[in-house]
Every structure is written in C-alpha cells, then in structure tokens.
C-alpha cells in the first residue's frame, strides 16, 4: 500500500495548504488595505456636489460616487492581489524551501496548486466580504439621508404622494440592493479568473516580475477579447487572413473580461438577474478549471 | 529526454487552451449578447472619448472602471460649471455619458447645464452684442436638447428622461416645439412606468397645437371618469375645448357642468385665463369669466381682466421673436 499514489484533490490536504497560504498572505499585512478602503469611503462623502435642480437629482450623484469609488477600490484590490499574490507564492515557496518540504510528502502537485489558488481566493473573498459590509452600511445610511432630502424638496414643490413614492423607489434602487451584492460577487469572479491565469503563468515562469507584468497585460487584453471575437465572427472586414487569425488567437487564448463589466451597469441602477449572474459564475468556473488544469499539466512534471 | 517531455507538455497545454478557447467562444458570445440585451453591458467606448479622458484615466477605464472615471469627470465638470467654462463642461458630459450611458443623472444634469445654465449665462451677457447673445443662447438651448435626445436614444425605457425632454420642448422660455413635446410625453407614457401626470401633460401638449385639439378633447372625455384627471388645469382645458367644439353653448351652463359651482368655475377659469405661459386654448373662457364676475359681484379692482392686462405688459421670453 505504501507505493500507492495518493488520491488527487483531497479536500483535507487542499484545505491545509489553502489555510497556510491564507495565513501567509495575512502575515504580509494585506488587510491594511481595508483601512485604505475605509478612507476612500470616508473621503467620498465629501463629493456631494452642490447641484440641486430638482428632487430626483438631489444627492443621487453622491450615491453613484460611493458605489463607483467602492467597487473601483474593491476591483483594484482584488485584481492586484489576484495577480501579485499568485505570482509571488510559488517563487516564495521555492525561496523559503517550503515547496520541497511539502512535495517531499505524499502531496500531489495538483493539491498543492489547488490549495495555493484557494488560499489566495479565500483571502480575496474574505476581504471583499468585509469591504462589502462597510459599503452596504455607508450606502444604507446615505440612501436614507438622500431620500429624506428629496422628499422634503418634493414636499416643498407640492408633489403628490404617488410621485413621491415613485421617486423614493427610484432612489432606493441606487442604494444597497441584491444586484449590488451580485456586482461585488462579480468583482470576486473577475479576480478568480485573473488569479488562475497568473497561476498558469507562474508554473512555467520562475520570475515573479514576469508573471506579474504578463498577468496585468492579459488583464488589459481581456477587455478587448470580445472585440477580437466579434471582429473574427464579423468576417474581419477590411483586414486580411493574418488579421483574422490574429483576432481568433486573441479570442481563444485570452479570457473575456468584458462580461464582468456588468458591475458598471449595476452601479448605474440596472438589475442583475440571478440567472445571468449564475451564467457568469459558470463561465468563470470554466476559466478557472481550464487554467487550473493547464497549470497542473505544466507543474506536474516541472523540475524544481 | 525530460526536456522533450516537458516540451510535449507545453504543446499539450497550448492545444488544450486552444480547444477550450474554441469551445467557449460561442458560450461567451451568447452570454455577451444576453448581457447586452439586458442592458448590463455597455457599447465600446468611442476613440474620441479616449482622447478626451487622457491616458491615465483611460487606463483606469480600461481596467473595468468606467463608472469610476465618469464620477471623476463629474467632479471635473463641476469645476467647469463654477468657472462657467461651458464648452469644457459640455465636452465633459459627452465623455461621461459615453462611459456611463445608462446613468440618467448625467443626461439629466448635463442637459440642464447646457440648455438652462449656459444659455442663461449668454442671455445675461450684456457686454455682448444682442445678435451674438441670441445666437449663443439658441446654440446652448439646442445643444442641451440634442444632448437629452441622445439620452433618450440610449435609455428608451426611462420615462423620466422622456418627460424631461418633453418639458424642454414645452418650456415657453426655450425653443418651443409642441408636436415634439407631445411625442416625447407619449413615449414617456408608453414606457408603462410613468406617473398619471405624464398623460395629462401629453394632453396639454396636444391642446397647444390647433390641429390636435379635436383629438385632445376626445382624450379628455375618455379620461373624465378617472379621478386622477380631475385636476384644475385639466378641467379648464376641458371647458375650453368643449366650448370650441360647440361655440353656441351657454358659457355659464357649460362652466357649471364642468366645475360644479360658480365659485369653483371662477377660480379655475380665472387662473387658466391668467396662465399666459401655458399657451392653452381659451375658447369661451373670457365669456364665462365675464359672466361669473358679474354674478359673483367681483370688485373691478380684483377683476381677472385687469390682472391679465398687467401680466400681458410684462416680458416673458428673453428673445421674443424666437417663439
């Protein structure tokens, strides 16, 4: 029995590695970023512009500012941590020689990689949950204040009860909604994709800098993937075969990060339906599985 | 040998990425289309916008933070507003709405700045020749209106934006276009989300067009059982249009039928007759007011006719010949 191969993706083993990775990152003081996030939320309160031309416009800009600044900061944190932490972990484990200690034990390399990715994603998730709680709290307070201000103004202008109810419903749509929670989840999903790309890069690169730079390049390119795909499917009008092949290559290799831009629409008050959110989750799972599997293929036989 | 095996692995990885990419292409495309249909994805940003936001903000917008860039630009626009730099302000709002086309607030505030603040600024510039003031005033009113027209094209289901546009067309202090106002109110009402006053506003816009008054009366008659339509302006309009349809009717009898009492009829018809900005039909109104003033023994000093003369002597429009 001693010669038998350990079972792949053992939850206990993966969990231990993930927990270790989480602790390792926490010790790097990444949670200090939460203080920066709180400062952003406080700072944005001062951005209430003195433009009051009608009840429905009063204070609305402040709600937009809070949401866009908060989700922007969340995105920045999640993406930077997703790329940098993932790029850093493998070389750091080699440098600290922890990797040799782990792999000398009956730990499959797949479990090691899965644990590392899960650890990074757990940290991003926990951080986003804390930031989300802060955002919801601040937004709820501000939305109530804005609604009260609008209703007072509407009263002064002699609006009817129906008009005021409609106004309140419209404004509350800009406050803490389930769609906004969905948008925060989408911030996490986008980070998960970019972290799994960084994991793949780090399996064949020994340089953290290379992985980080290329990871960010892929992140930016991901916003053009849909354009490349549409260009290919439209027949590549005005460009030769090389252009079409180039656009196809970009479309099949790079993940489509534009689908995660639903965050922008939710900030503007659009409703993110659960079915669509589930589809985004499904596509994300596909990306993570493919990039994760490829990472394992490279890492499994890599000489360390 | 190991190197060769590793090379094979890398080729295998490349092949898997390509195959997975080909498999996911139609899935991604379908999802993108669904998100676009649901209004959750926005069209690509114009090249002109990229030049306007500058390289640093463009990089932020590229990182999936378009609304954040729009927020920053909104702060910048406020600076332009304070400094009364209207062209820069309008450009900033053009860029904002390109980045966040579903945000009603930017269309609303941007059009208001252009059609009201910028136009009023030029209207009050006494140091400029009258012709130049008039041209600038007109340009900014038109620019604000065009901006809002672009807003409703991007948000056809937003009843408030349609209503704002209709208000622009109806405003007697701007470039009035009652046919377009009626159409905009109609589009607002047809979204199914608008409040009842939008339907009434549509009828008012119809009544302001002489060729649409028969239809306006039909509409008012159809709404006569709706308690929400029993507002003074609507009742006064009903009186004027009923009288217009049958000028032979006794004004007092018609007034009592519509308003229920002489006092109420006098109050509502009096206000209607004094509303010069409303540009509503006044068929039979002067006749009814005269009879009612006589019956209610209204003092000559408090006569509606005297008040109307006083109001008529006051200037209404900044550039009267543009009405």
Terminus-to-terminus distance of chain A? 27 Å
Please give the alpha-carbon distance between the first and last residues of chain B.
Answer: 89 Å
Mean pLDDT of chain A: 88
Q: How many domains comprise the coordinates of chain A?
A: 1
| Unreliable stretches of chain A | none
Helix coverage percent of chain A: over 70%
Helix fraction bin of chain B? over 70%
Q: Outline of chain B, from the CA principal axes? A: elongated
Q: How would you classify the quaternary structure? A: heterodimer
Strand content of chain A: under 5%
Number of DSSP helical runs of chain A: 12
Counting DSSP E segments of at least 2 residues, the number of strands of chain B comes to 0
Which pair of chains has the greatest number of interface residues, and how are they split between the two chains?
Answer: A-B, 68 and 55 residues
User: What order do the SSEs of chain A take from the amino end to the carboxyl end, as H and E?
Assistant: HHHHHHHHHHHH
- Average pLDDT taken over every residue of chain B: 88
Extended strand count of chain A: 0
Largest sheet of chain B: none
Topology record:
The complex is a heterodimer of chains A (304) and B (323).
Chain A: H1 11-27, H2 32-44, H3 60-95, H4 98-104, H5 109-156, H6 161-172, H7 178-204, H8 208-222, H9 225-233, H10 241-253, H11 262-267, H12 274-300
Chain B: H1 2-37, H2 47-62, H3 66-82, H4 86-99, H5 104-123, H6 130-154, H7 159-170, H8 178-190, H9 196-207, H10 213-222, H11 232-245, H12 251-259, H13 262-274, H14 285-295, H15 304-312
Helix pairs in contact in B: 2-3, 2-4, 3-4, 4-5, 5-6, 5-7, 6-7, 7-8, 8-9, 9-10, 10-11, 11-12, 11-13, 12-13, 13-14, 13-15
């Amino acid at each position: 029995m001693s010669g038998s191969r350990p079972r792949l993706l053992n939850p206990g083993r993966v969990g231990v590695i993930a927990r270790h990775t989480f602790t390792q990152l926490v010790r790097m003081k990444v949670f200090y970023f939460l203080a920066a996030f709180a400062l952003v939320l406080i700072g944005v309160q001062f951005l209430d512009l003195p433009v009051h031309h009608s009840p429905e416009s009063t204070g609305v800009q402040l709600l937009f500012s809070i949401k866009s600044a908060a989700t922007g900061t969340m995105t920045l944190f999640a993406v930077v941590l997703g790329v940098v932490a993932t790029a850093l972990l493998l070389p750091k484990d080699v440098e600290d020689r922890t990797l040799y200690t782990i792999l000398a034990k009956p730990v499959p390399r797949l479990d090691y990689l899965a644990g590392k990715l899960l650890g990074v994603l757990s940290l991003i998730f926990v951080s986003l949950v804390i930031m989300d709680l802060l955002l919801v709290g601040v937004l709820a307070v501000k939305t109530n204040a804005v609604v009260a201000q609008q209703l007072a103004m509407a009263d002064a202008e002699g609006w009817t009860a129906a008009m005021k109810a409609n106004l309140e419903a419209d404004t509350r749509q800009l406050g803490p909604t389930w769609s906004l929670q969905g948008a925060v989840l989408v911030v996490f999903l986008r980070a998960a994709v970019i972290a799994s790309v960084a994991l793949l890069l780090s399996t064949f690169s020994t340089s953290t800098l290379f992985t980080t730079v290329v990871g960010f390049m892929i992140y930016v390119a991901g916003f053009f993937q849909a354009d490349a795909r549409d260009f290919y499917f439209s027949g590549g009008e005005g460009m030769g075969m090389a252009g079409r092949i180039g656009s196809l290559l970009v479309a099949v290799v790079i993940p489509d990060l534009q689908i995660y831009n639903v965050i922008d629409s939710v900030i503007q008050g659009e409703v993110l339906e659960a079915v669509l959110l589930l589809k985004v989750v499904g596509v994300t799972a596909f990306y993570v599985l493919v990039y994760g599997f490829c990472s394992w293929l490279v890492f499994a036989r890599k000489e360390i | 040998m190991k190197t060769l095996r590793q090379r094979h692995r890398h080729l295998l990885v490349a092949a898997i990425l390509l195959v997975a990419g080909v498999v996911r292409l139609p899935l991604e495309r379908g999802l993108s289309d669904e998100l676009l249909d649901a209004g959750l994805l926005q069209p690509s940003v114009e090249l002109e916008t990229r030049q306007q936001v500058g390289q640093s903000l463009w990089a932020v917008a590229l990182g999936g933070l378009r609304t954040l860039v729009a927020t920053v630009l909104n702060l910048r626009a406020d600076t332009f507003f304070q400094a009364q730099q209207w062209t820069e302000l309008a450009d900033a709002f053009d860029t904002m709405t390109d980045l966040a086309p579903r945000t009603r607030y930017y269309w609303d505030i941007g059009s208001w700045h252009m059609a009201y603040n910028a136009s009023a600024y030029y209207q009050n510039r006494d140091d400029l020749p009258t012709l130049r003031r008039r041209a600038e005033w007109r340009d900014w009113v038109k620019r604000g209106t065009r901006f809002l027209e672009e807003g409703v094209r991007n948000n056809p289901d937003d009843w408030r934006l349609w209503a704002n546009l209709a208000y622009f067309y109806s405003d007697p202090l701007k470039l009035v276009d009652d046919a377009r106002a009626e159409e905009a109110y109609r589009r607002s009402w047809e979204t199914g989300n608008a409040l009842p006053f939008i339907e009434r506003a549509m009828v008012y816009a119809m009544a302001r067009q002489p060729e649409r008054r028969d239809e306006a009366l039909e509409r008012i008659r159809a709404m006569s059982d709706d308690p929400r339509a029993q507002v003074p302006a609507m009742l006064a309009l009903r009186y004027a249009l009923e009288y217009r349809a049958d000028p032979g009717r006794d004004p007092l009898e018609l007034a009592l039928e519509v308003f229920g009492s002489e006092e109420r009829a006098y109050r509502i018809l009096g206000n209607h007759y004094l509303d010069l900005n409303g540009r509503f039909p006044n068929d039979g109104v002067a006749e009814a007011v005269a009879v009612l003033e006589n019956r209610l023994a209204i003092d000559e000093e408090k006569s509606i006719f005297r008040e109307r003369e006083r109001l008529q002597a006051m200037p209404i429009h900044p550039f009267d010949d543009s009405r």
